[in-house]
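Tip: read the tokens left to right.
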């Protein structure tokens, strides 16, 4: 019993010690406050609404009539000091008045326009349409993407009127007008998208035809000329291509095609057809130094002496022309005649024929198979054409 009493006394002492170590919290009395918020009196004096007491426990007669609620405005004065006032600043009221006026004007203009359209009157409301793009965007486009003005004769030729030379004759003859005035100078700079150009009463389209690059397998008996009087011009081989132009390219004018360089009437093989004058000038100019490969079938037997004479060159139109290479091709069972591979870069008229003739040989047939790095496709039929790809144009030394 004594032990039990000791244990109980010890536990009571520990509990009292534990309770004495607990932190003491200060109790804060609960404060309740009531806000006297009310609204201004009714604006209608005939039907005034009595103000309710802000609280059922408060008496209006005891506290008096509550004041209306005002919104404070913090405004910075001319000296830079902040002041408190009960009315909005003048500039704020002025801005609100202007914005309402502009909105009202816009609505009024729209209503007047609809009213005039519905009434069928001839009176038209002048409303300037907002531009689709900003001035900065249009300026950037004009400076970086729009084509610069070009010579009048070049524009007419690109539009398919005639060749560059014939276009100059039309200009000199007074058949071309620019913006209502007769222009007799082919070097005049014009922009077909902005200038109004007429040729013999027919207006030139604002859109120029896109650039076209074609490779033609020219057959024998066709002349490389775009003249209308030629019955067997290579341009006749593109009749079907031009007839289907509108279906393939709706809304674009037809291009005027011409050949880059020429092959004589008896020569077959590769020839480039385009409507890009700069491209044609680069390919045909001697400074490009594009090699051209021909396969010549000759009459008779070819020996070593013939090859030496051809490789030494000859004079063509007073200029000495020396081929890049001459090679005798191996005989084939289905081909009875000897064949020569001749590579030149001058590109003068009848150059290969003159080289073979100077060696004492006679050409039976002549075919061009390569220009620069572009070779005549083996699957291209005689008299057919194929559109040149970007890689083909690069092989010809042209960079878009």
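Filled-in amino acids:
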């Amino acid at each position: 019993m004594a032990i039990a009493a000791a244990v109980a006394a010890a536990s009571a002492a520990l509990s009292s010690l534990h309770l004495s170590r607990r932190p003491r919290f200060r109790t804060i009395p609960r404060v309740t406050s009531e806000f006297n918020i009310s609204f201004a009196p009714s604006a209608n004096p005939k039907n005034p609404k009595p103000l309710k007491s802000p609280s059922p426990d408060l008496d209006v007669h005891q506290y008096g009539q509550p004041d209306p609620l005002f919104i404070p405005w913090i405004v910075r004065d001319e000296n830079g000091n902040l002041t408190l006032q009960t009315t909005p600043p003048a500039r704020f009221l002025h801005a609100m008045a202007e914005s309402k006026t502009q909105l009202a004007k816009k609505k009024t203009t729209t209503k007047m326009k609809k009213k005039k359209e519905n009434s069928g009157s001839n009176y038209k409301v002048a409303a300037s349409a907002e531009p689709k793009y900003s001035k900065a965007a249009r300026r950037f486009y004009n400076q970086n993407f729009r084509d610069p003005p070009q010579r009048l004769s070049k524009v007419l030729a690109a539009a398919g009127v005639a060749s560059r030379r014939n276009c100059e004759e039309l200009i000199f003859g007074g058949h071309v007008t620019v913006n209502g005035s007769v222009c007799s100078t082919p070097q005049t700079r014009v922009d077909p998208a902005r200038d109004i150009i007429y040729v013999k009463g027919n207006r030139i389209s604002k859109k120029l035809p896109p650039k076209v690059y074609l490779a033609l397998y020219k057959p024998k008996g066709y002349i490389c000329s775009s003249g209308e009087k030629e019955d067997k011009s290579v341009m006749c081989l593109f009749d079907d291509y031009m007839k289907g132009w509108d279906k393939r390219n709706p809304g674009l004018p037809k291009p005027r095609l011409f050949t880059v360089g020429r092959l004589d009437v008896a020569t077959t093989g590769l020839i480039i057809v385009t409507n890009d004058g700069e491209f044609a000038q680069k390919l045909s100019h001697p400074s490009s130094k594009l090699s051209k490969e021909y396969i010549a079938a000759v009459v008779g037997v070819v020996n070593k002496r013939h090859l030496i004479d051809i490789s030494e060159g000859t004079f063509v139109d007073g200029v000495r022309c020396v081929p890049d290479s001459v090679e005798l091709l191996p005989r084939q069972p289905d081909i009875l005649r000897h064949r020569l591979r001749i590579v030149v870069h001058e590109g003068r008229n009848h150059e290969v024929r003159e080289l073979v003739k100077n060696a004492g040989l006679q050409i039976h047939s002549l075919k061009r198979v390569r220009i620069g790095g572009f070779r005549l496709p083996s699957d291209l039929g005689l008299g057919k054409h194929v559109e040149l790809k970007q890689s083909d144009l690069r092989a010809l030394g042209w960079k878009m």
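The first helix runs from residue 2 to 20. Residues 373 and 395 are 5 Å apart (CA to CA).
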